[in-house]
Design goal:
Elements (H helix, E strand, L loop, with lengths): L9 H29 L10 H57 L11
Length: 116
């Protein structure tokens, strides 16, 4: 069993999630550009038997690679969204716990001029 404390700054986690979402979007844009470039209609390898065999293998590998990159991009986007959701969850839990403490003990004493 692991003991100890984990301290999380919800705003930092949410910021990291938003930054990661931006990276995921750039990845998606880049993969889309790559798919356009490698999926061009021209067949530079020619239409003979050797060229046709190469084209078949090339397209299969290209499709697998693009699918893998799409999947990875989707996973990064999911991680980004999860960070933001978890940050909100931690902040809400902290607020709820603080509120329940205040219900029992009252809010922290404000600094007053009571001298002392």
């Amino acid at each position: 069993m692991v003991s100890g404390q984990l301290r999380i700054d919800p705003e930092s986690v949410a910021t990291a999630g938003r930054n990661l979402a931006g990276i995921a979007q750039r990845m998606a844009d880049d993969v889309s550009s790559l798919a356009t470039a490698v999926g061009a209609a021209s067949d530079p390898w020619g239409g003979d038997e050797t060229g046709s065999t190469f084209a078949l293998a090339y397209r299969a590998v290209r499709d697998i690679a693009l699918d893998a990159m799409d999947s990875y991009t989707e996973q990064v986007g999911f991680a980004a969204a999860t960070l933001v959701v978890q940050a909100r969850s931690v902040a809400a839990a902290d607020a709820a716990h603080a509120s329940s403490l205040y219900d029992v003990t009252g809010p922290p004493a404000a600094a007053s001029g009571s001298g002392g």
